[in-house]
Amino acid sequence: MSAAAAGRDPLESTRFEAVIGLEVHVQLLTRTKMFCRCEARFGTEANALTCPVCLGLPGSLPCINRRAVESTVRVGLAFGSEIPLLTKFDRKSYFYPDLPKGYQISQKDDPICKGGRVEFFVDGEIRVARLVRIHLEEDAGKNIHVEGRPESWVDLNRAGTPLMEVVSEPDLRTPREAGDYMRMLRQVMLYLGVSDCNMEEGSLRCDCNVSTRLRGASHLETRTEIKNLNSFLNVEKALEHEIARQIRLRETGREAEIVQETRLYDPDRGETRSMRGKEEAHDYRYFPEPDLAPLVFSPEWIDGLRATLPELPLVRLGRFQEDLGLSAYHADQLVRDKEIADYFERCVESYRQPQSVGNWVLNALREELRSRGVGIEDIGVAPERFAELVRAVDDGAVSTQKARDVLRAMADSGRPAAELIREMGVEQISDDSFLRGVVQDVIAAHPGPVEDVRRGKRNSINFLVGQVMRRTKGQANPAMAMSLIDELIGSPPAE
Ligand SMILES: [Zn+2]
User: Fold this and answer.
1) What distance in angstroms lies between residue 120's CA and the mean position of ligand 1's atoms?
2) In this prediction, what percent of the chain has a pLDDT beyond 90?
3) How far out from the chain centre does Cα 395 lie?
4) Domain ranges of the chain
5) Over residues 24-28, mean pLDDT
6) pLDDT of residue 222
7) Ligand 1 centre distance from Cα of residue 154 (Å)
8) How far apart are the CA of 38 and the centre of ligand 1, in A?
9) Is the pLDDT of residue 3 over 50?
10) Which residues does residue 106 pair with via DSSP β-bridges, in sequence order?
């Protein structure tokens, strides 16, 4: 996807560059809502998870969710933000049917985190986007419109769930950078365990601010905002289309048509269209939330949270390269998913061959997870056992091909590799004198191909190896068979 996105770079051959800033909304993983004790979860009967506070009934009083504040501070610390010792909440007034109070409790002047920076990779190169702020607010409910019905419904189960907003400076220049920035945000959130970042359920959503200007210019042009994108692919595609649209207007002298407005991306038609213009821009009439006292943090409390930070993806990536000798590509693939990376490390603890363990985790294991549709914690193969399987392959006790069958059987039965290899009759034959005999028989039976190999036709050696595999029911060690064939017919060395 990324390579394709790079290929569609709308900026490639123009005099213009894009200036992109993202506002990413992250649904925090808390047991209860932001300002009440209703459960914060999905998939329940509509409006079952509500109370006077999140229904916005008069006289009800909000109470701040401690866990949500801690999570936001931890995210800020992970990105090097400043955590001011005082923070407060503000009312942001607007009317919408899924916002029963008529205002949202958010943060304006004193967000929990100020500044910070996100480092991320684009094509193996490190990029940096600075952060403006990270603040905490509550989510709205959900309007439900059913096609063909005249009425609409509202489900307030989501109303009041904690939402963290990460606002970047306009430091991103291409759709690809925006996508990779957002991927890194997701990785870090998952490492911190502050959100499940489930994009289908809308736990990670993004608004993109984008403008275009002559390459190298330093001023900012009029920007448009694309609202509510909920996948990396949609972020990249929506930006591509919007940037291309703005550049088209600039190149044809119609830049006056680029106006400050909110646009929506339609993934089916692959275009953005205007949702509301500047003239309708809201005046939110922010003022300090009178029902909530400002929060005052102590430096010791912040330090305590700092101590809970896990090793973050980029640090881990560096360690995998330096200590384990993995390539940047492999290390990057492994650290993307914290569970996979943890599993890999436990495998390496019992079998210190990071290269082959990494390969097996990224290929065979991930394939098995995909085909079963389960996460790594549900595959039923302990890391130590998986490491034994990789060791068996490296020792030549089982072929790469058969090892995949063994892995499947391990996941089915939970039994150790060695036992299954024996029982399934898939032990690889690496016994020199036995294989030598088989190879001699094959050479005697196929004088034609043998002659071809002698004359340097390397293709024919594959045929002979195939014959050895056939006679051993696929159990011969193919690399050994090949070198024995070479040795016994005295063929010229491979080029
Ligand atoms: Zn409630």
Assistant:
1) 37
2) 71
3) 34
4) 2-303, 313-423, 432-489
5) 97
6) 93
7) 15
8) 4
9) no
10) 90
